[in-house]
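User: Last request for today: this protein with zinc ion, please.
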Amino acid sequence: MRTTEQTLAETPGTGIDACYVGDRAAERLAQFARAHCGTSCLVVSDENTRAVGGEQVLRALCDAGIRVTEKRYGGGPIDASQELGDEVAEAGAALDFFAAIGGGTLCDLAKHAGTKLERPAVLYPTAAAMNGYTSGIVAIKVRGLKRTVPCTPARAVFADPEVVATAPQRMLAAGVGDYLSKCSASADWRTAHFLREEYYDETALRFYDGVLDEVLGAVEAIGRAEPEAVALVLEALLLSGLSMLVAGSSAPASGGEHLISHYLDMKHALYGTAADLHGTQVGVATVHCLRLWEQVLELEPASLDIDALVAAQPSREAARAWIEEDWGPVAAEVHGQWNEKRLPREALRAELERFVRGIDGLRPSLLGDLLPSAVVADAIRKAGGPAEPEGLEASIEEYRNALARARFIRNRFTVLDLTAELGLA
Ligand SMILES: [Zn+2]
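Assistant: Here's the final one, the structure of the complex with zinc ion:
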């Protein structure tokens, strides 16, 4: 299969020098670090990640002649915040580079610290639950709200599937959900380009097409956490992160389904309502968005009553009231995002007319982006995760709110906007 290493070789300038998924990943990480990053390092881990893969990495770093200082968190969940990232940066201020042993949160702390001090960060993922390892963004709390903040990508990522296979099955299924979200996200992106002339780069999507079939063909083995199948999920996620890096935007892997997940995370941060793993939420929301896309593609464009659709759109005041109700102390900021996307009535009419004229021409490409919702739901279930909201460990009430209102939280145009405009949602 196509590997991240091959893709890196063909897409120079990403800032990532090496990606490796396979055995002896700890030794390879240490050799790479010794050759490219320096002779002293701060290793970030927590009790769990250190126990599963950390010892091998620490030993390999020492064997390579690298002086190691450790920053180890406890076993409970930690939230990546700017303060915590700054704390990591401070702990490593006198050292040459940062190394993270862990999942998305710990790796984001190392990326944040590396970016802040302009030092390399190398990552040793212990879970395959999301696609951020190769991305140029960190998901980090700034003044209490989770944001995606641009960062320098990690210099290298080394993952051992045998180690990652020991993570809880639900995390691996979350990774499958985060990866498969590219289907609805890329259709959203294509449509945003068509309707709103947003920047679009097809090459960012196409370089990992073949991986999709392999993942779908391996879902049962993924469900058993067989190391070869785990390696496949890791590669798919690394390539997915890389697609965002190549595009210079998260759009190829983050559409309406991600807005639904972010809505749940923001409610969690603000009001303490339950939220689940990013990829688990994204997987469930991807199934929803693919169902929306199925409705869109079944529409008979000529039958649309554009006057009635324009008249049915929420007024400025109604949207403002919903945003106030949802976001209280941060409503002004959310409102700013919505205002960047909201169209006045005449522009909305023009957009709907453009949709009616263009959808038949766009349909074949959209069908190339999309997968049937039933296929994605089945894949997530077989991988060991929920495909329906009832299976989430998040607030079901907030999930339902998100379906209608997540589109207000970000200026990105997605299928949530399209179906609202078309009167389908
Ligand atoms: Zn994601």
